[in-house]
Amino acid sequence: TVLVVDFGAQYAQLIARRVRECHVFSEIVPSTMPAAEMLAKRPKAIILSGGPSSVYEEGAPIAPDGLFDLGVPTFGICYGHQVMAQALGGTVENSDVAEYGGATVAVTAPGMLFAGLPHEQAVWMSHRDFVSSAPAGFTVTASTDVTPVAGMEDRERGFFGVQFHPEVLHTEHGMEILRRFLYEGAGCRPNWTMVNIADESIEAVREQVGGKRAICALSGGVDSAVAAALVQRAIGDQLTCVFVDHGLLRKGEAEQVEKDFVAVTGVNLHVVDAQDRFLAALDGVTDPEDKRKIIGREFIRVFEEAAREIAGEQAAEPVEFLVQGTLYPDVVESGGGTGAANIKSHHNVGGLPEDLRFALVEPLRTLFKDEVRALGEQIGLPPEIVWRQPFPGPGLGIRIIGAVTRERLDILREADAIAREELTRAGLDRDIWQFPVVLLADVRSVGVQGDGRTYGHPIVLRPVTSEDAMTADWARLPYELLQRISTRITNEVREVNRVALDITSKPPGTIEWE
Ligand code: XMP
Questions:
Q1: Which atom number of ligand 1 is nearest to the Cα of residue 219?
Q2: CB 381 within 8 A of CB 229
Q3: Is 225 a known ligand-binding residue?
Q4: At the top level of its lineage, which domain of life is listed (predicted)?
Q5: Given 3.20.20.70, 3.30.300.10, 1.20.120.80, 3.40.50.1360, which CATH number is that of 404-501?
């Protein structure tokens, strides 16, 4: 493994992903982890990430004691570069001039990281402090107008540092520099491949679950689908999947889970038709938070009943495990430690009651979203499942603005199906992050259709682009496509006489309307 030491910047996750793109496994550890604990993970290399601090600030994070005596090749990036310089006897200075954004570095001595690369390179910078002199034993390999030591290395001891961000795409040769550190500087081998990941995860699940039984709630989303398929590969019929049809799904979704997923994986599926129950619970409710709470609560109750039923059927072998599609970003964001991460995972299923205690099986907890998709493909899931856009748990319930009724759900389902169909036909599925379609159920406007006056509801299209759903931008879909969607919706969905486009980014708008 390669340890990415997190000094508190958002870059640590990106660095970890880039390392994995070089087919080397990486994990993120906090900068407060003692060096001995890091060594116990037997890292092939250590990368010190960027961070928001100045090494001179009170309480600024520092490298753990003894980190540079571990004999592990180490690469400092940005703040990590400064930490390394300072710890090994170089000097770091405050500057009046910050360097943010694009810059050009000049290679002063190629060393290992820059050998054979152009003398001048575009890089991405984000710093104010700078290394003014490298520690003894280091060669200065690159500099800019404002940063005398933009690159340094001590190949003999296995220490490398750069002031810029190689993990950012704006750094022209960033990936090449990272690869050199990993392969040449640290002797890592590119063996983190999807075939290995699949094999190792399946083996790990087998070992964890043994001969016991497990259940999994399928949402229809990619994470739970890949997790379930993987566990099914590992333990076969010992797994039962529960699919709660709450009636808030999109057109064809329940069928897709029942047919496509089961056909491909051969998984045991327990479908609960709870449409009436959810509709009854949502009757007359308009407040978004109330809707979310009710849907979450009902989901847990239905799942709980199903779990009891399944457990009862198999009284001789109780269900001991619950499979969850927790991803690595959730694990990192909730503190990285196992304890903290579990709190979050339990939240995903909500508070299951005491007598339904499960041990968690989380086969995706070391993976990023794009790796989950690749893994899904590797284990043979169809593209319709693997490339599905995210869809919120509360479903169409939070895309009807106003109370949820069966009739309104039918209207929205039709409009949504048209929008999705046209997006797919235009070949743009993978270019946009998500395409919520929203029904303003309590709003009516006057229109004219044929010779008659209409008084119908508006539909709002909310296509967005995003990398992680934390921020988003409205997708610039081609006008012709928007026009086709608008025409078809107003022609084919009788109750809708107006189609609007949401052109709000996030922030200030969220992706969903509720
Ligand atoms: P917002 O609307 O907050 O949504 O910008 C960010 C992302 O999260 C999804 N979302 C949910 N997913 N359960 C989920 O599983 C939920 O309750 C939920 N609410 C929002 C949303 O679709 C978007 O991808």
A1: 15
A2: yes
A3: yes
A4: Bacteria
A5: 3.30.300.10
Q: What are the tens digits of pLDDT across the range 482-503?
A: 999 999 999 999 999 999 999 9
Q: Which are the contacts of 450, defined by CB distance < 8 A and separation ≥ 6?
A: none
Does the domain spanning 194-386 belong to CATH 3.40.50.620?
yes
CA dist 39 and 474 (Å) reads 45
Is 347's pLDDT higher than 50? no
- Pick one of 3.40.50.880, 3.30.450.20, 3.40.190.290, 3.40.47.10 as the CATH number of 2-185: 3.40.50.880
Mean pLDDT of the chain: 91
Query: Residue 204: CB within 6 Å of ligand 1?
Result: no
pTM of the model: 0.80
**H-helix segments, 350-506:** 369-378, 383-386, 406-425, 479-492
| Beta carbon of 510 within 6 Å of any ligand 1 atom | yes
For residue 57, how many other CB atoms are within 10 A of its CB?
Answer: 10
* 224 annotated binding-site participant: yes
Q: 214-254 pLDDT, tens per residue?
A: 999 998 889 999 999 999 999 999 999 999 999 999 999 98
Separation CA 186–CA 188 (nearest Å): 6
Q: Whose CA is nearest to atom 21 of ligand 1?
A: 392
Ligand 1 centroid – CA 295 distance (Å): 14
Tell how far the Cα of 397 is from the centroid of ligand 1, in angstroms: 12
CA-394 nearest atom, ligand 1:
17
219 marked as binding residue: yes
80-89, 104-113, 290-299, 345-354: least confident range: 345-354
What pLDDT is recorded for position 468? 74
Q: To test the ligand 1 pocket, which listed residue (249, 401, 460, 512) has its Cβ within 8 A of the most ligand atoms? A: 512
Of residues 333 and 82, more confidence is placed in 82
Structure confidence at residue 355 (pLDDT): 61
